[in-house]
Amino acid sequence: ESLIAKGVPWLTVAHLLALLLPQALGLTIPMAFLVGLLVAFGRLSADRELVAMLACGVSLYRLLRPVMLLAVAAAAATMWVLIVGIPDANQRFNEITYEIIAARVEHDVRPRVFFEEFPGRVVYVQDTAAPEPGWRNVFLADTSTPARPVVYLARRGRMLLDRGARRVELVLGDGWRYNAGERPGDYEISRFEGELILALDPSAVFPAAKPPRGLTELRIADLREQIRLKRSQGLSPHNEIMQIQQKFSIPAACLIFGFLGVALGATARRDGRLAGFVVGIGVIFVYYVLMYLAEAMTKGHLLPAVWSRWVPNIVLAPVAVALLVRRARRADAPVAPALPALAARA
Fold first, then answer.
1. Cis-peptide, bond into residue 131, ω within 30° of zero
2. Mean pLDDT of 306-312
3. Which of the listed ranges 5-19, 51-65, 239-253 does the model predict with the highest average pLDDT?
4. pLDDT higher than threshold 70 for residue 305
5. Per-residue DSSP letters for 192-235?
6. What number of CA atoms fall less than 13 Å from residue 113's CA on the CB side?
7. Burial of 254 by CB count in 10 Å (0-12 exposed, 13-18 middle, 19+ buried)?
8. How confident is the model at residue 70 (pLDDT cuts 50, 70, 90)?
């Protein structure tokens, strides 16, 4: 919304939106892979096509082969997004935003709107001087020294920007200057008929440098350098360690979801289509609950950071294998055991 308000072209806005996609894909590719498997196998089960396959001697382990090929492809795509796509896309997004802000500030001073982006100064213009550049009837309040504020009233004004020299100047013409005196209620008035040039803080228009890479914009080599630096300073690098491990643990989850997709979706029962889908959504929920619970334990110094992102995989992997073996033995078994049956066994 802020970019559109600045008059940024739609193609640039679309480019920025596209740069935000990798950040979402890093988490949604494994989820979409599991849901896609459940939808596909649920349809096969509901149409009794899976029954025909099993009757012809096609076992679930044979069906697992193409599923695992897809799982490897999904894992590779997720790993590329997490290792390369997200850091580069996020950084490029920050750089484009930086360039837009630096290029558009000179046009942000609009008639009859108070402009307060310059530290310690407020600018208000009554109208533009079109077709000539600049403004008419300019009000400028300089509060950089709170004890002695200065107010300027000018008939015309304009802004001069020199990006190479990092210089920002406000030029006022034909006006008055009001200086507050040392005692309350005292002030001095001086008139200037020519041009008065006021230097402004260039950091408000030109940031000191391009935006640095944040945690999500760092590649593995940069994260390892941050870990080394923090350890040398006696700080805990748990965030950087978890960020590195996440780039491999989430792609590995695609392989586990492949086992779960076959185990939960491939059934000879007619209720498998809906029940498997619901349980699959529950699996995704459990995965992220375990991930954030492990992160909280790491921050509480209860779990090493190197294992934090692997906890969901460690918990779900044996469950996935056990469910697949159970489904291969009895294809007509329900997706999840009934609670009364579990209570009776207990």
1. yes
2. 93
3. 239-253
4. yes
5. EEEEEEEEE-GGGTS-SSSPPP-GGG--HHHHHHHHHHHHHTT-
6. 8
7. buried
8. very high
Helix (H, G, I), strand (E, B) or coil at 262: helix
Q: How many CB atoms lie within 10 A of CB 124?
A: 17
Strands 121-128 and 167-180: unpaired
Assigned token pair, 293: 């619970």
What is the residue whose two structure tokens read 């403004």?
135
Residue 13 CA to residue 206 CA, distance in Å, equals 21
Strands laid side by side in the 150-162 sheet: 121-128, 135-142, 150-162, 167-180, 187-200
Tokens coding 53: 């396959």
Residue 168, strand partner residues: 161, 200
**pLDDT in the model for residue 77:** 95
Helix, strand, or coil (residue 201) = coil
277 vs 127: CA distance, rounded Å: 61
Detail the DSSP E strand segments found in the chain. Answer: 121-128, 135-142, 150-162, 167-180, 187-200
Whole-Å CA distances, 284 to 30, 32, 51: 9, 10, 27
Spatial separation of the C-alpha atoms in residues 229 and 231, rounded to whole Å:
6
The tokens describing 127, both together, are 């109208």
- Spatial contact of 285 and 318, defined as CB atoms under 8 Å apart: no
Structure tokens at 216: 């999500």
Nearest CA to 169 out of 158, 153, 178, 177 is that of 158
How far is 25 from 333, CA to CA, in rounded Å? 34
